[in-house]
Amino acid sequence: MKEGVYAGNPVRYIMSLEEYKEKRNKEQLGEAIELVQEYKKAYSKFPNKEILKEYFWLFEERNKELNKNFSSIHKLSNNEKISTEKFLKTKPMFEGYDNFIKYVEEIEKRESDLLQKG
To answer: Around 68, how many Cα atoms within 13 Å sit in the side-chain half-sphere?
Structure first.
């Protein structure tokens, strides 16, 4: 059996690990944006970055002194060392949390403009 994502009974091949990684990377940004937007609707403010602990790879600076809330994510499956090494070798999509929030604000503005024109 080749490496990949499998599901069902009987089990069947769904996609390669690389395809799954690419799919999850694309979905992760949308999920993070949705979380921020829903939080803002509920609390009338943007969340602090610790609320987005599942998405910190999108915006957190790469250094060994990782925020405690974020480092706890690397410990979940007893793979802290591997996760941290991988994290340090990657580049975030945004240059910091503030830039991520600016991106979300731009999306909200475009959506608002479309609704007003609609």
So the answer is: 0
pLDDT tens per residue across span 39-76? 999 999 999 999 999 999 999 999 878 888 888 888 88
Count the alpha carbons within 13 Å of 107 in the hemisphere toward its beta carbon: 13
Angstrom distances, CA of residue 80 to CA of 31, 84, 100, 117: 23, 6, 25, 49
For residues 118 and 4, what is the distance between their CA atoms, to the nearest angstrom?
44
pTM of the model: 0.80
Q: How confident is the model at residue 118 (pLDDT cuts 50, 70, 90)?
A: low
Which residues are CB-neighbours of 103 under 8 A, at least 6 positions away?
33, 94
Residue 2: predicted pLDDT: 84
In terms of Cα–Cα distance, which of 21, 16, 50 is closest to 36?
50
Task: Give the three-class secondary structure for 100.
Answer: helix
Cα 52 to Cα 36: distance, rounded to the nearest angstrom: 8
